[in-house]
Amino acid sequence: MGNYCDEKRLRDRYPFLVTIGYQCEGDCSRSIFSGMSVNMSRAGMCLYLFESPCLREGANISLAGETLMTSRRGTIRWMHKVEDGFYKVGLQFI
To answer: Which of 43, 44, 67, 91 is the most buried if burial means most Cβ atoms within 10 Å?
Structure first.
């Protein structure tokens, strides 16, 4: 099984290990789901995310975390199931 974060990169990514909260765009409930970042570039991030209603390829999510200077938005470009309810995700910033 390949390392999904290393494939098809357009820009170099750097280690970025922080707890991340995310929200599904368009979700009126404003529920916050959790995850952990792995690495980041100017174009995107690799993350481990817990399952949520919007966790699917093509979905837009908003990220927040203590070490992120501002909230970031991104589109899920790929995802790989690690185990039930837990996924490795490639996010492209928008």
So the answer is: 91
Residue boundaries of the structural domains of the chain? 15-87
Asked if residue 69 has pLDDT above 80, the reply is no
pLDDT of residue 76: 97
**Residue type for position 81:** K
Please list, in sequence order, all residues whose beta carbon lies within 8 angstroms of the beta carbon of residue 32, skipping any fewer than 6 positions away. Answer: 21, 22, 23, 64
pTM for this predicted structure = 0.81
DSSP symbols for 20-62: EEEEETT-TT---EEEEEEEE-SSEEEEEEE--TT-STT-EEE
